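input
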Amino acid sequence: VPTIDTIRNEWLIEKLLRKGYHVLCTGETGTGKSVSIKNKLLKGMPANFNSISLNFSAQTSANQTQDLIDSKLDKRRKGVIGPPLGMVAVVFVDDLNMPAKEEYGAQPPIEILRQWMDHRGWYDRKENEFRRLVDIQFCAAMGPPGGGRTRITQRYVRHFNLINFVNFSDESLARVFGTILDWRLSQGFAGPIKQSSEAVVQSTISVYNDIAANLLPTPAKSHYTFNLRD
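output
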């Protein structure tokens, strides 16, 4: 369900990607980062853009990351790979800060991506030769550190244009959930039930706000963090 915030953020993402800039979207869980990016990459970009999607987890390795991106690109000439001629590949990395840190504090999947940012390529592990990747750019999404997500190196972040997705206002929440509930109640429910849609949405938002404000996390109950997915 589009809101003024999601439309504004999608417009910014499109303008930055069209000009060849890398984009990093941050924000709390449930603010629509991944949905906005996927929606823009799949339906809102010119025909010469295609997308490659990666989902990072704590177990993601640098080799997996490199192999997945390489497998989606074509050989242009010796030592150079990229999308089909005339195309631009946007690599979307979801949950960018999820990979676990190794013993020296680095995150190998992020370091292999940073190597491309700094040197426009990485080494072919079979041939031991440097391979350039052309006509690609990156778009990533991540939540704030905590709960398995870590802080990522500033050496990598400096390459991005940062967009912060703020939490939805109560008006936006009412529009989103009201639209969903109205659609569901239109499927065979009686008139009095349909008329209760707005009251149900408003009361649900009120309960959610009260819980988030009063049930704060403590050392004994560190899981008391609430977002829209709850």
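quick obs: Residues 45 and 211 are 39 Å apart (CA to CA).
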